[in-house]
Amino acid sequence: MNWNIKTFNELTTTELYHLLHLRSEIFVVEQRCVYQDIDYADQQAYHLMGTDEAGNLLAYTRIFAPGIKYAEASIGRVITSPKARGKGVGRELMECSIAQLERLFGKVPIKISAQQYLQRFYVSLGFQPVSDMYLEDGIPHIDMIK
Q1: CB atoms < 10 A from the CB of 114, how many?
Q2: CATH code for residues 2-105
Q3: What is the chain's pLDDT, residue by residue, as a tens digit (146 residues)?
Q4: How would you label 102-113 residue by residue, b for 16+ Cβ within 10 Å and e otherwise?
Q5: Where are the domains of the chain?
Q6: Each residue of 127-136: b (16+ CB within 10 Å) or e?
Q7: The whole model's pTM is what?
Q8: Which of 26, 30, 61, 68 sits at 20 to 30 Å (Cα–Cα) from 80?
């Protein structure tokens, strides 16, 4: 997996198209979640992209500095393409996201809004629940902090 992180202004139009396509494929089509994905937060985010040797986008997250989404730094829009699932790419994506966030902002608290069914996965990465379950776009979520 090749990892690349860019600000919004550094993204090429092709990279932006690919990451929006993958987000739509997973969140809107696969998870049947009708919501406003393009939320004007992309311009404030760092975009971590994992591609294969052919350049296909297989994994992606948005990373935010403290004070943008939450008081804490945050990681969101965590996606692994169906083509890459079951190969440890999700763990690699989160480990790389945490490392990049710490490189950019130091070792600061990280808050995520996690889909509840992935709580054990995030706990294995050092996150702890800090909220009760709530519905976000009809999907059970839980806030977690590392």
Answers
A1: 22
A2: 3.40.630.30
A3: 999 999 999 999 999 999 999 999 998 888 887 777 889 999 999 999 999 999 999 999 999 999 999 999 999 999 999 999 999 999 999 999 999 999 999 999 999 999 999 999 999 999 999 999 999 888 899 999 99
A4: eeebeeeebbbb
A5: 2-105
A6: beeeeeeeee
A7: 0.94
A8: 68
